[in-house]
Write a structure and sequence with these properties.
Helices cover about 75% and strands about 0% of the residues. The chain is mainly α and about 400 residues long. Among the domains are: about 80 residues; about 40 residues, no CATH class; about 100 residues, no CATH class.
Length: about 400
């Protein structure tokens, strides 16, 4: 009981450290970060947004030029003259591209069906030509399955066609009828399957255990034959096992969780941890569940106390692993940080943001230079675009037909 209480105390201490980080340090750092470095943060966001918009525009213009079968500069001229007209043309081009893609798909499907029909005819003729040889080998005791796959392999090599495709060509009613005619009815039903595991001799059973990683029923036989031992449970298996136990104890349909707010809140946390596949968090929640159901008391059996002690230690170790990672972050201990540390953090964050801004500006300048060089319509000697847009309509709106 003393060992269990000590393990529970260290677990509670680790969780208290994590709660301070989540509820105090992290929110305080976020508020300070935005208050002290707001202008730099907005500048970085603006540069990133500008870069994204320019890259997206160039990708869009390239796609437009490809669909319209025109030059990139022509696409840019249309875009810069009227964004509304550009978007209208773009929608039409996308509809046309979708129709062409559907036509290509239908054409490819028809070609595939024709090819499969031709393959079926050729394969059926081949099997009918071999009918006498097939029946002779069957009378001599040959296996239907072996004979069929030998013939299939010979045909695929002769015609240079994948055996899987040939096999698929026979898996219909007509193919079954042809197999029945030549005496190979049921060749695809795997009648000649190997014996069941229980019918295998010990040596073969051990070999299959090593190949497929399943444990033998007889431990002494497994040890004598050198079979692989059962593999330890993976993180996924442990996560599934914990979730099942927690669901049995906390699910509203299985317990009184609806009447106990603490259990209901714990159940919501379990669902979140399961969705995030967070094994460490699930271990911690499992420890909380044990406390809620009142497992720790003087009347608890010694075996149960030992299991609880191990559970608390495992959960504590999971928390400590997470804490070791969080200690390396700037947020850790920020709520109680002095002015000297905050000034140091401000210098570090400022340098980091300024570096990001400089990098974004460099990328924006490169993208703008690329846009000017590759996308921007060239001007003639008079300084106007080499392909003038033409007179605007009398109503002052862009002529969609002229752009199209």
């Amino acid at each position: 009981m003393t060992d269990c209480r000590r393990a529970r105390a260290t677990f509670d201490k680790a969780e208290a450290e994590l709660d301070v980080f989540e509820n105090k340090d992290k929110p305080a750092f976020v508020r300070w970060y935005h208050m002290e470095l707001g202008p730099l943060i907005e500048e970085a966001k603006m540069q990133a947004r500008q870069l994204h918009e320019l890259q997206y525009r160039m990708e869009r213009l390239s796609r437009f030029a490809e669909m319209k079968r025109c030059g990139i500069r022509e696409a840019t001229r249309i875009y810069e003259r009227s964004t509304e007209a550009f978007e209208a043309i773009e929608r039409k081009l996308e509809e046309r591209a979708a129709q062409e893609e559907e036509l290509r798909r239908q054409r490819a499907e028809r070609q595939h069906n024709l090819a499969m029909q031709e393959l079926r005819k050729t394969l059926h003729s081949f099997l009918r030509e071999q009918a006498k040889q097939i029946k002779m080998y069957l009378r001599q005791g040959a296996s239907k399955s072996d004979l069929f796959y030998d013939l299939l392999g010979f045909f695929s090599d002769q015609e240079d066609i994948d055996p899987v495709v040939c096999l698929a060509a026979l898996q219909d009613d007509e193919g079954e009828q042809v197999l029945k005619e030549v005496g190979l009815a049921g060749a695809l039903d795997h009648d000649d399957a190997p014996p069941e595991e229980d019918d295998l001799p010990p040596e073969l059973k051990a070999m299959f255990a090593n190949i497929f990683d399943f444990p033998l029923d007889d431990p002494e036989l497994a040890e004598s034959l050198g079979a692989k031992p059962p593999t330890p449970p993976t993180d996924d298996a442990r996560l599934t096992s914990l979730y099942r136990e927690l669901a049995f104890a906390l699910h509203p349909d299985q317990s009184d969780s609806n009447a106990d707010p603490a259990k209901l809140e714990l159940w919501h946390q379990v669902q979140a941890a399961a969705e995030a596949r967070d094994l460490d968090r699930m271990e911690v929640l499992y420890a909380h569940m044990q406390v809620l159901v009142g497992e720790l008391s003087p009347a608890t059996p010694v075996s149960r106390l030992t299991a609880l002690t191990q559970m608390y230690r495992s959960s504590r170790d999971a928390l400590r692993r997470r804490i070791r990672t969080l200690r390396k972050t700037m947020e850790w201990g920020f709520a109680t940080a002095d002015d000297m540390r905050r000034a140091e953090l401000k210098r570090h964050c400022t340098a980091h943001l300024e570096e990001d801004i400089a990098l974004f500006r460099q990328r924006v300048e490169y993208a703008e230079a690329l846009y000017e060089k590759e996308f921007k319509p060239r001007a003639n000697k008079s300084g106007r675009p080499s392909k003038p847009a033409g007179p605007a309509p009398a109503n002052g709106q862009t002529s969609f037909e002229s752009l199209w």
